[in-house]
């Protein structure tokens, strides 16, 4: 009886604590939504919290009627999918051999990779490299330089190492090659972590824009976040306006448009995780062990 | 997958160029190939040219031209930087819009030059420019920056073309337009490494007061700093705006527009030597930290803060968001700001009046120095620094382009568009046609970044230039704007210009600027009894972190200049 | 095993490794010659090769800067605090979510918890100001209405540390749980049933079943965190920081931005980067060694 009571207490406290944290995480998002729907007057006067004031949808209709936004969305989705698929394939290819302690030269390769977590050549040689490979102003400039994150690679290695050896050995006794073992045993057993890393890669690509500032000049290849960044930056230049001869008065975009664009650029990537959650099924690995 | 053809629309709508490109480039573009719109084709072609210049692949151009026969293989390509702010309106891109076409048709095509505009993100301009410069190729023939530090660095490291002779040879109109005063800012040890744009309006700041509050309390407009103090006290005690105790008599932030007018009014009148040696230029702006009177200014701010007469959270307000929020809410009685900033449509004043129909904001000139004047800084007479990298093979064409812009009414057309469609002339001042269709208005969306030789509209004299700004404001604020723009030009202090860059400023400038802000914040917020000791300590730290080095170098440079 | 047999058995592994190693060689080691900028007086137009050698002069200059020592200290301090507060936060949150019985709420809250990760720092900065501001911040409105003095969350440097940590936890904890949740899918539910039979309480089960199954992930993340002790993101200290708390909020990344990038002194920026890299590598190798001894687990 006492245990059950304690258990219920635990559940209740746990639920309430999580609920509070969830609300705290939701509030800023609601705030941005509220801004996107409010009038310029109420925003500038600082009246908007999480409830929109003087509601209007003009910001959204402006975003949606902007064909460059829609095109940019399409490009960003394509870029993100391409990037994520290539990254995951490359990371698996690196992680599987490196998860085998018996592999000769493994330590040397690991060291070779870990060095790159800390040392980098800097922005100028990187730009020169991308230029010499003729990747400037192409989608590949946003894909190839970031193919494997050493950090995610290390995580994947540690998960691969947790796959029980017995499973692999039995497969190899059956005559399976390493390739086959990888595809038929290791990958299916690692779906949760592969889903996680895909999410990490996808989100990193979706939110990243600093490389586009350097490598991309064609507006057709602008990812959403770059457009968003420019929109936000334009408003930061209110101080620059007088410096620039106030020629830029009409450059100022309303706050609500900024907020609507943030929502427009964030929601597509936010729904990726709920979709990936289906791969977070408990006990995949153990089921396989028993079978 | 062999060669494919694209329509090339750099500038001229009439011009077609067939491009033969290598596998590499096709592969690059394969992803976007399907969406072949005209605009896409333009940028693809642009990138091909870029890639071709970047090294390796060949890019043969053969022109088939409808109206002019000049777009032939002999045409030179002139690459010009343009800021990309990501705000191209519908139907335009940063590299293909009304103005790029205007330039191509009126300058490019007649001179057998293909104009190519190279977008650089506004917020990353120096960063990207640095990388372009360091990587050796791809550098446009004309680049520019607002950052004087970047200009000096490039010039000193030997990366810029000396334009002295080219200017005489190809740029008579340009030289006449820019005038010697402006050109002096682009000279280093006698060589013309940059062409600074000419600024049309030098005024920076005005102050603003709630006239309706004064009227309610039966107070006159304060004429001096002392009177202002009394007025601020009255605002605080009598709360004419009925803010329920939330009144902020003096609106402040940690942005220069708010603190500079106050601080400079305390600076004692100085000799030429003092102004040259004791002023500290940090990131393109002159700071009076070592000038006599600075301590008094800080002491005044300290008093205001500790008596609750000033925005309490001013030290957090880097971008004036909180200030404009408080002004529009009707909490602020008095503040200083960039001269015309409050008057924009949907700006501070408009929003304030939406919140409170009776609110009246007047432009006033209050802060007074011991001579009874209202000193405040003004801009140097320049805008961006236009530069031609040494790597450019088209320096002559580049100067010709700028000269073309300065001659006839080309600049006027680039800034104002088409008469009757974009504007109507009233007393020689172009009044923007507010009812024009968006399509027409959008023609000029980036004129400030295209008409690079000028900063602001040039109509012949300072009053007319100012008038051009005035008529751009909502009608009911035009009179106020005119007043603010007059105030900002009164009793101004000119920035100090040396004939060579002060290296210590380039080195320590940005760090010391942070330090300077820290000094203002700490000295304002410290308890009055600790003010003196804090002041001594902060100044000591400032000097130790590079302030002394700047002082020494400026003193030496002044002596050298006087010899 | 002799070499031929070994290769016959393992060649597929090397084939798999070929592309990844090629990737690192080209894209990571290719540009690495840029490091020599640290030993040169970098001139944009002479390029890296053409610039003049200056030996260790730039290192001496950087190490002598008072700002460098201060920002180094702040970086270590903020990272250490983060290690104590922000590192365990996602772990705790993940366990809490795992213990949650209501499936739909679990799924929804997972998604909501990671939203803050997607909000840009510029926007977070504005919100932080509204919530923690001294004069009109939401929290201080409540505090003052109850008759207490306003708490200078943003302007007092010690209070600011609290704000910095709280915002960090809020922004990253939900995102950090994802990897733990992935690891938790590996737990055999039967273990819990067995524990129930033994009459183990909730905390007992968490301690002896849940946490041990997370150990490999925790150790891996910890080693990497220790390697990053001297690296720090730019945006969080820059945006949450302000002039009043520069004594604490000024860190290596803001220092490099200011001195190296804004003033165009790439040599200085490279020197600091190289210093951080060497220290980071030493830290990560040390942590790896310690973990091998203590937990019998390593990443190398």
TrEMBL record, chain A:
<comment type="similarity">
    <text>Belongs to the binding-protein-dependent transport system permease family.</text>
</comment>
<feature type="transmembrane region" description="Helical">
    <location>
        <begin position="108"/>
        <end position="128"/>
    </location>
</feature>
<dbReference type="GO" id="GO:0005886">
    <property type="term" value="C:plasma membrane"/>
</dbReference>
<dbReference type="GO" id="GO:0055085">
    <property type="term" value="P:transmembrane transport"/>
</dbReference>
<keyword id="KW-0812">Transmembrane</keyword>
<keyword id="KW-0472">Membrane</keyword>
<keyword id="KW-1003">Cell membrane</keyword>
<feature type="transmembrane region" description="Helical">
    <location>
        <begin position="12"/>
        <end position="37"/>
    </location>
</feature>
<dbReference type="InterPro" id="IPR035906">
    <property type="entry name" value="MetI-like_sf"/>
</dbReference>
<dbReference type="InterPro" id="IPR000515">
    <property type="entry name" value="MetI-like"/>
</dbReference>
<keyword id="KW-1133">Transmembrane helix</keyword>
<dbReference type="Pfam" id="PF00528">
    <property type="entry name" value="BPD_transp_1"/>
</dbReference>
<protein>
    <submittedName>
        <fullName>Putative aldouronate transport system permease protein</fullName>
    </submittedName>
</protein>
<feature type="transmembrane region" description="Helical">
    <location>
        <begin position="140"/>
        <end position="160"/>
    </location>
</feature>
<feature type="transmembrane region" description="Helical">
    <location>
        <begin position="181"/>
        <end position="203"/>
    </location>
</feature>
From TrEMBL, chain B:
<keyword id="KW-0449">Lipoprotein</keyword>
<dbReference type="InterPro" id="IPR050490">
    <property type="entry name" value="Bact_solute-bd_prot1"/>
</dbReference>
<protein>
    <submittedName>
        <fullName>Putative aldouronate transport system substrate-binding protein</fullName>
    </submittedName>
</protein>
<keyword id="KW-0472">Membrane</keyword>
<dbReference type="InterPro" id="IPR006059">
    <property type="entry name" value="SBP"/>
</dbReference>
<keyword id="KW-0564">Palmitate</keyword>
<dbReference type="Pfam" id="PF01547">
    <property type="entry name" value="SBP_bac_1"/>
</dbReference>
<keyword id="KW-0732">Signal</keyword>
<keyword id="KW-1003">Cell membrane</keyword>
TrEMBL record, chain C:
<feature type="transmembrane region" description="Helical">
    <location>
        <begin position="214"/>
        <end position="234"/>
    </location>
</feature>
<dbReference type="GO" id="GO:0055085">
    <property type="term" value="P:transmembrane transport"/>
</dbReference>
<protein>
    <submittedName>
        <fullName>Putative aldouronate transport system permease protein</fullName>
    </submittedName>
</protein>
<feature type="transmembrane region" description="Helical">
    <location>
        <begin position="161"/>
        <end position="183"/>
    </location>
</feature>
<dbReference type="InterPro" id="IPR000515">
    <property type="entry name" value="MetI-like"/>
</dbReference>
<keyword id="KW-0813">Transport</keyword>
<feature type="transmembrane region" description="Helical">
    <location>
        <begin position="266"/>
        <end position="290"/>
    </location>
</feature>
<keyword id="KW-0812">Transmembrane</keyword>
<keyword id="KW-1003">Cell membrane</keyword>
<comment type="similarity">
    <text>Belongs to the binding-protein-dependent transport system permease family.</text>
</comment>
<keyword id="KW-1133">Transmembrane helix</keyword>
<feature type="transmembrane region" description="Helical">
    <location>
        <begin position="12"/>
        <end position="39"/>
    </location>
</feature>
<feature type="transmembrane region" description="Helical">
    <location>
        <begin position="112"/>
        <end position="132"/>
    </location>
</feature>
<feature type="domain" description="ABC transmembrane type-1">
    <location>
        <begin position="72"/>
        <end position="287"/>
    </location>
</feature>
<dbReference type="Pfam" id="PF00528">
    <property type="entry name" value="BPD_transp_1"/>
</dbReference>
């Amino acid at each position: 009886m006492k245990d059950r009571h304690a258990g219920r207490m635990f559940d209740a406290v746990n639920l309430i604590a999580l609920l509070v944290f969830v609300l705290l995480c939701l509030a800023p998002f609601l705030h941005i939504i509220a801004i996107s729907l409010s009038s310029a007057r109420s925003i500038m006067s600082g009246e908007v919290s999480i409830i929109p004031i003087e509601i209007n949808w003009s910001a959204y209709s402006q975003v949606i009627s902007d064909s460059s936004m829609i095109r940019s969305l399409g490009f960003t989705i394509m870029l993100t999918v391409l990037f994520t698929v290539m990254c995951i394939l490359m990371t698996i290819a690196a992680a599987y051999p490196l998860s085998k302690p018996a592999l000769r030269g493994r330590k040397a390769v690991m060291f070779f990779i870990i060095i790159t977590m800390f040392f980098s050549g800097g922005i100028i040689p990187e730009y020169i490299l991308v230029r010499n490979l003729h990747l400037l102003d192409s989608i590949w400039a946003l894909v190839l330089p970031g193919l494997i994150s050493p950090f995610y690679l290390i995580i994947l290695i540690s998960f691969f190492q947790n796959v029980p050896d017995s499973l692999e050995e039995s497969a190899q006794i059956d005559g399976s090659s390493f390739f086959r073992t990888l595809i038929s045993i290791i990958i299916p057993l690692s779906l949760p972590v592969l889903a996680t890393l895909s999410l990490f890669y996808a989100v990193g690509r979706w939110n990243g824009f600093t490389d586009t500032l350097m490598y991309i000049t064609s507006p057709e290849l602008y990812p959403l976040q770059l457009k968003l960044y420019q929109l936000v930056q334009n408003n930061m230049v209110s101080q620059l306006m007088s410096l620039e001869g106030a020629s830029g008065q009409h450059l100022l975009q309303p706050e609500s448009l900024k907020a609507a664009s943030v929502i427009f650029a964030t929601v597509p990537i936010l729904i990726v995780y709920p979709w990936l959650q289906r791969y977070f099924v408990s006990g995949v690995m153990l089921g396989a062990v028993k079978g | 997958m062999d060669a494919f053809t694209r329509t090339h629309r750099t500038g001229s709508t009439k011009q077609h160029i067939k491009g033969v490109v290598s596998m590499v480039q096709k592969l690059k573009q394969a992803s976007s190939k399907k969406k072949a719109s005209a605009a896409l084709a333009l940028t693809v072609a642009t990138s091909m040219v870029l890639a071709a210049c970047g090294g390796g692949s060949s890019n043969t151009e053969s022109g088939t031209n409808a109206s002019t026969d000049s777009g032939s293989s002999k045409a030179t390509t002139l690459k010009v930087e343009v800021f990309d702010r990501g705000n191209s309106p519908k139907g335009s891109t940063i590299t293909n819009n009304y103005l790029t076409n205007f330039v191509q048709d009126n300058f490019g095509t007649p001179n057998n030059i293909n104009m190519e505009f190279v977008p650089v993100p506004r917020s990353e301009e120096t960063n990207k420019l640095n990388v372009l410069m360091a990587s050796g190729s791809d550098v446009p023939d004309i680049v520019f920056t607002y950052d004087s530090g970047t200009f000096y660095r490039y010039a000193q490291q030997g990366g810029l073309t000396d334009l002295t002779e080219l200017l005489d040879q190809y740029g008579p109109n340009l030289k006449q337009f820019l005038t010697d005063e402006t050109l002096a800012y682009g000279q280093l040890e006698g060589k013309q490494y940059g062409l600074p744009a000419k600024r049309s309006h030098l005024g920076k700041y005005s102050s603003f007061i709630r006239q309706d509050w004064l009227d309610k309390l039966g107070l006159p407009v304060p004429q001096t700093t002392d009177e202002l103090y009394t007025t601020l006290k009255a605002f605080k005690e009598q709360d004419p705006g009925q803010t329920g105790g939330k009144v902020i008599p003096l609106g402040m932030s940690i942005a220069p527009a708010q603190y500079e007018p106050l601080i400079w009014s305390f600076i004692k009148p100085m000799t030429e030597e003092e102004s040259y040696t004791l002023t500290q230029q940090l990131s393109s702006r002159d700071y009076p930290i070592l000038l006599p009177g600075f301590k008094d200014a800080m002491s005044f701010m300290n008093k205001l803060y500790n008596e609750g007469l000033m925005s309490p959270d001013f030290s957090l307000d880097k971008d004036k968001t909180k200030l404009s929020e408080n002004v529009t809410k009707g909490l602020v009685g008095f503040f200083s700001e960039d001269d015309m900033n409050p008057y924009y449509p949907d700006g501070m004043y408009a929003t304030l009046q939406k919140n409170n129909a009776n609110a009246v904001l007047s432009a006033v000139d209050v802060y007074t120095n011991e001579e009874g004047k209202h000193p405040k800084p003004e801009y140097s007479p320049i805008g961006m620094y236009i530069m031609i990298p040494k790597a450019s093979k088209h320096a002559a064409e580049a100067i010709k382009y700028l000269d073309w812009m300065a001659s006839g009414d080309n600049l006027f057309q680039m800034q104002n568009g088409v008469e009757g469609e974009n504007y109507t002339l009233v007393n020689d001042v172009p009044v923007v046609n507010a009812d024009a269709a968006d399509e027409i208005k959008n023609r000029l969306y980036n004129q400030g970044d295209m008409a690079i030789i000028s900063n602001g509209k040039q109509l012949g004299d300072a009053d007319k230039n100012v008038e051009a700004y005035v008529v751009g404001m909502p009608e009911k604020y035009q009179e106020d704007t005119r007043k603010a723009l007059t105030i900002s030009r009164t009793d101004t202090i000119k920035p100090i210009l040396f004939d060579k860059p002060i290296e210590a400023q380039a080195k320590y400038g940005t760090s010391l600027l942070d330090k300077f802000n820290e000094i203002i914040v700490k000295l304002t917020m410290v308890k009055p009894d600790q003010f003196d000791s804090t002041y001594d300590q902060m100044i000591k730290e400032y000097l130790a972190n590079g302030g002394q080095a700047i002082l020494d170098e400026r003193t030496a440079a002044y002596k050298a200049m006087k010899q | 095993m002799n070499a031929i047999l070994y290769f016959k058995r393992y060649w597929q592994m090397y084939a798999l490794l070929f592309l990844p190693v090629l990737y690192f060689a080209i894209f990571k080691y290719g540009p690495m010659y840029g490091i020599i900028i640290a030993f040169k007086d970098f001139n944009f137009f002479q390029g890296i090769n053409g610039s003049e050698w200056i030996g260790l002069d730039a290192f001496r200059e950087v190490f002598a800067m008072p700002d460098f020592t201060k920002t180094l200290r702040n970086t270590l301090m903020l990272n250490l605090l983060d290690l104590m507060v922000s590192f365990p936060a996602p772990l705790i949150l993940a366990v809490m979510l795992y213990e949650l019985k209501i499936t739909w709420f679990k799924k929804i809250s997972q998604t909501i918890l990671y939203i803050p990760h997607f909000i840009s720092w510029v926007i977070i900065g504005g919100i932080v100001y509204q919530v923690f501001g001294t004069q009109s911040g939401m929290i201080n409105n409540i505090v003052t209405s109850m008759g207490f003095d306003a708490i200078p969350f943003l302007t007092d440097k010690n209070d600011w540390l609290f704000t910095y940590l709280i915002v960090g936890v809020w922004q990253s904890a939900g995102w950090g749980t994802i990897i733990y949740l992935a690891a938790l899918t590996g737990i055999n539910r039967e273990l819990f049933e067995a524990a129930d039979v033994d009459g183990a309480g909730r905390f007992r089960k968490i301690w002896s079943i849940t946490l041990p199954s997370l150990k490999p992930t925790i150790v891996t993340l910890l080693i990497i965190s220790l390697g990053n002790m001297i690296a720090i993101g730019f945006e969080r200290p820059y945006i949450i920081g302000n002039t009043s708390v520069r004594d604490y909020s000024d860190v290596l990344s803001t220092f490099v931005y200011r001195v190296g990038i804004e003033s165009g002194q790439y040599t200085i920026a490279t020197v600091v980067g190289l210093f951080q890299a060497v220290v980071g590598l030493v830290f990560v190798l040390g942590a790896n060694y310690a973990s091998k001894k203590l937990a019998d687990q390593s990443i190398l």
